[in-house]
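call fold(seq) -> C-alpha cells
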Amino acid sequence: MSPPLVGENAGTNKKSCSEPSCDAHCSCNSDSSSCPSSSSPPPLLVSLHSEKVRRVVTASMKGFSIGAALKGGLALFSVLARLRRTRSSPKVQVFTSSEGIALTVKEALRYGLFLGTFAGTFASIDELIASLGGQHRTGRWRALVAGLIAGPSMLLTGPNEQHTSLAIYILLRAAVLASRCGIKSNRFGYICKPLTWNHGDIFLMCLSSSQILSAYILRQESLPPSYKSFLNKHGGKDLSILQGLKDIASGLPFTNLEVIEEYYKSTGVDIKLDPEMKIPCPIIHGKQSCSTHVLSFFVQGYKRALPVYLPVYLIPALIVHRWGLLKRPCLILAKSILGTARSSLFLSVYCSSAWLWTCVLFRLLKRCNVPMVAMGTFPTGLALAIEKKSRRMEISLYCLARAIESFFTCMADAGYLPRSKKFKRADVAIFSISTAIIMHCYAQERQVFRSKYLNVLDWVFGVPAVPSPSKERKKHRAL
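ret:
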C-alpha cells in the first residue's frame, strides 16, 4: 500500500519525490509515471556500465586478434620453411602439412588467449578501480595495479613454457620508458643523461653481439632453443664446424676433424685439415679465402634473411595500417617492401661480418682463444647502423635480453650464481612488474611512447582520459 499523500498533493494521483534516485531525474510536481522506482538504476548509470563492459569485451577481442595474427603468422612462415627443408633434404625429419596447420592453429590460439586475457584483465581492473575509487583519485596508480594483475596471463601460453627472454625484453622496454620519464624529471634528469647518446643503441648491439655470438660458438645450451635454431640457420655453418671452432678456441684437442672433412667432401670440397693448426680459417671456410668466403656468405645470408622479415613488415601493415591500405595501398606496400629489403641487408651484413671480424683478428694475432672470439664478435653490432634509427633501439633491446639471459645462464653453469629451485616462474613475475611500469607510463606519461606504439595501445586498451576533480564530482552527483 502506498503511504498517505500529504500537503498539496493530497487527493491527487501525484506522489512525493522522497526517493533519492529521483532527485536528478524528476521534480516534485512530476507524474508518478515519470519518476523511476528506487529499484531501477538511472539511465546514465546503465549507459556507463554498458560502456565499461563494451570496453572490456572490445579490448579482449582486439588483444586476441593481435596475438593470434602475429604468432599465427610467424608460426605459419616457420612451418612453410620447415616443409621446404623437409622436401629439399632427406636428412630432415619428415614434417607433414597437417602437422604444420595444427601447430600454427595451436600457437595462434595460445598467444591469442594470452594477449586477449591480458587486455581484458587490464581493462576490467582499470574500470573496477575507477568505479570504486573515482577516476581522478586513482588516476596516478590505477594503471600500475591493473598492469601488475594482468601480467600472470602469460601462463596461458603454457604452464611449462618458460619465457625468460620475452620477460627480460619487456623489462628492458619498461626500463627505456622509465628512463625517458627520468630524462624529463628535474630530480633524475642528470642520472639518465647518458641514455640520450645518439649511438647508444649501436653500442648495446655490439655488447649483445659479443655475448650472443660467443655463446653461439662456445655454449649454445645457454641460448633459448628457438633463438639457437635461428642462429644456427643464419650462422650458415654446420654443427661440426662450430664444434671444431669451439675445440680450438677452448685449447682442447680436436675431436671431429674427420667429420668436418666429410662435411666439406659432401659439398664438393676435398680438404685435409691440420690437427696442429693455430688459426681456424680452414675449418670455417675450407679452401676459400677469407674475402671470398665473406662475399659468398653475404649473398646466401640475404636469401635466408628475406623470409624472416616479410612477416615482420607485412603483418603489422595489415593490422596497424589496415585503413591506409584501402586509401594508399601502393605507398604502404612499397614501404613494407623497402623495409624488408633494408632489414634483410642488415641481417646478412651482421652475419657475414661476424665471420669477417673473427677471421681478421685470428690472422692478425696468429691465434684463437675465448677472449678473441668475444672481441672478434663485438664489432659485428656495427651492422645495426644499416637499420632505420627508429628500429635500432628495438633490435638492440631484443638482442640485449637474450644476451643477459645467456650471460647469467653461463654464470650459473660455471657455479658463480646460485640456482633457485623454489621460484620457478620468475619470468611471470618479471613480466608482471614490467607490464605494470609500461601501462603506468601509457596512462600517465603518454609522450614517452612512439606514435605507432601509442596508436596500437589506444586501439586495444582505450584508456579513458582522467577527468578533473570538478567534472568527477558533477558526474557522481548525476549518478
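The two ends are 28 Å apart (CA to CA).
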